[in-house]
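Quarterly update from the structural biology core.
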Amino acid sequence: MEAEPTTPDVEPTVTGEAAVADGTAELSRSLLKSAGPRLLRDILGPTLSFYAGWKITGNLVVGVALGSAFSFAAYRYERRHGRPGIVARLVLAFVVVQAIVGLATGSAEAYLIQPAILGTLNGAAWLVSVALRKPLAGAFAGEVFPFDEETRASDAYRSTFSHISIVFGVFFIGFAAIQLLVLLTVGIDAFVAVRLLDAAGILVMIVWCVRYAVGRLGDGMQLSPGTLT
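Predicted structure, tokenized:
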């Protein structure tokens, strides 16, 4: 009597949904580990350098010099490592203007209020980019994720990064308003504390952004190893 054919044992496989979830978590961790410190440096470095110099010496010029020097050092570091450094370039350009205004007015408040004003303009730019159908989130994502032309041209890509750009735009405008209010009504020490909260909020936003983008674009988006080194 012929033996019945047996079917080989099949190892249970991870579902596509679970694989995406695992990939998203790994992507978030990798991005925070690599880009997180750079963002904190670019966002907080100039402000904290100014604050330390000004607070310790009581001299505005010392604070402005330290804040400006920090931004120049960050920019040179990014260029030496071959990174686009979009954030670093933007911060560097703004710090030059900020230093001129701070020194011309001789006021720490005038120096510090500028990042809050920039935050408002920055948020507006993110919202306008959506109206122009060229969401800024897509441009900044290019520093981390490589996309092929087909993905970039897709409706899903535009829709995903348009939504992200709107959320970031509202976030930047909202926090800028809070910073302006705190600086003008409470004082410089409280303003610096709010800047710290702002940076922490941006890191949370990055995690959300990755999860949302991966969930929408799936296999069309992969982490670029070169940008995380």
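Residues 23-221 form one domain.
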